[in-house]
Design goal:
This protein is α+β, with helices and mostly antiparallel strands and 380 residues long. The protein folds into 2 domains: 283 residues, Aminopeptidase, CATH 3.40.630; 76 residues, Beta Barrel (OB fold (Dihydrolipoamide Acetyltransferase, E2P)). Helices cover 26% and strands 25% of the residues. The chain contains 8 helices and 20 strands. The strands form 4 sheets. The protein has a 9-stranded mixed β-sheet, with helices on both faces. The mean pLDDT is 96. Bound molecules: zinc ion (ZN).
């Protein structure tokens, strides 16, 4: 199967500079199922970028026939990747407006709902086709009205993915074990994503409060079902997930090849590539609510020293780190314990050990929803 490489120019924001998205596609545009994979939305997060390089290499090798279509964007955010300031790549927030590149994706569900009212029927497959077409039309209209390069980028990525059956957005955390975020309404249908990718942590929420890329693709189906589902069947037709491939420093061919092999098997299991993926691996740990994930933050400035490694099962009240103020008059006084606030599995830490109030020190996946975890549940 041949690969087509396309380049989509973004809106130029300066004279003499034009950036573009490089998109690799396999398969005929009308053949299903369609898989969409992107990486580098947070431009400095490289594990997924290298993983998609290896996936392209594997698909090019052509050992198994591609039965559906596959779209791959290894560098989804050329804006962020060009934000090199004083020797450091700042790929998480747009320098122009301070907005997190993976938040505030456009929500077009209200106008899509208006456009399809009266056009739905008793057949779920037909309804999916009607909705996909309306989604793509609404996104094209918004793209023509985009005011900034980042807004145009988001709309372009959505236009390339909104009709996908499976859409994966590859990220990484600071220092972390693999984990995956997806919609509650995509569970347990998305269980193979977590299992094939060997995820020790799976976090579920229908609305995380930030409208990241994966939710901009999955949530319209839930919202339209809420609006029309009593009379017309509307499935969750786009299984999308944010896949966190460990930490920022976990970049290398060996890990990327392992992750690409896992993605390849998932594509086989989903009928997008021919061939036997083998038995579905057992999920290490059950999926948990995102509202049960504690985000442990620093209360004061200081130097962190962890007491527990990644992958620790901790209990509420257990000290997980010390926060040290080396300027204290009495060294014995210049130290506080940072404690877990919930029972759970500690799966992220901070790589750089100087912190200030509000800095995220750890994430702990717990089973019990945490009362204050409402509204914006993702970290910025
Ligand atoms: Zn990210």
């Amino acid at each position: 199967m041949t690969r087509v490489v396309s380049r989509f120019p973004l809106l130029p924001m300066s004279l003499g500079i034009e950036r573009y998205l490089t998109v690799h596609t396999y398969g005929e545009p009308d053949i299903r199922p369609k898989a969409y994979l992107q990486a580098g939305m947070h431009a400095g997060e490289l594990p997924g970028v290298l993983t998609l390089h290896h996936l392209i290499r594997m698909l090019d090798a052509g050992e198994d026939e591609i039965l559906g279509q596959v779209t791959i964007i290894p560098v989804a955010n050329p804006i962020g990747q060009s934000q090199i300031v004083l020797g450091t790549l700042h790929g998480r927030f747009g320098l122009q407006d301070g907005v997190n590149f993976n938040r505030a994706f456009p929500d077009v569900v209200a106008e899509v709902g208006d456009a399809i009212a009266g056009r739905l029927g008793p057949d779920a497959v037909g309804n999916v086709a009607v909705i996909r077409e309306a989604l793509l039309e609404a996104l094209a209209l918004h793209a023509s009205e985009a005011e900034t390069e980042a807004e145009y980028l988001k709309l372009t990525l959505m236009r390339l993915s909104a009709d996908a059956d499976l859409a994966l957005d590859l990220h990484c955390d600071d220092e972390a074990l693999k984990h995956v975020y997806m919609a509650q309404h995509s569970w347990p249908a998305g269980g193979d994503v977590a299992a094939d990718l060997g995820m020790p942590v799976t976090l579920l929420a229908d609305d995380s409060g930030g409208n990241p890329f994966d939710e901009s693709l999955s949530k319209p189906w839930l919202d339209l079902r809420t609006r029309f589902g009593a009379d017309h069947p509307i499935p969750s037709a786009c299984l999308s997930a944010t896949v966190e491939l460990r930490g920022m420093a976990d970049v290398g061919d060996a890990l990327a090849e392992e992750d690409a092999t896992r993605l390849y098997r998932l594509l086989q299991r989903r009928g997008i590539i021919a061939g036997d993926p083998g038995p579905l691996p057992k999920l290490e740990r059950p999926a948990l609510p995102l509202s049960g994930m504690e985000v442990v933050k620093a209360p004061l400035p200081g130097v962190l020293s962890y007491r527990v490694p990644l992958g620790s099962d901790v209990v509420a009240g257990q000290p997980i780190a010390d926060l040290i103020d080396p300027t204290a008059d009495d060294p014995g006084e210049g130290r506080i314990e940072i404690k877990a606030g919930t029972d759970g599995y500690l799966f992220t830490r901070r790589a750089h050990k100087f912190v200030w109030p509000g800095t995220v020190i750890a994430k702990i996946a717990g089973a019990r929803p945490i009362e204050r975890r409402r509204g914006r549940m993702l970290t910025d």
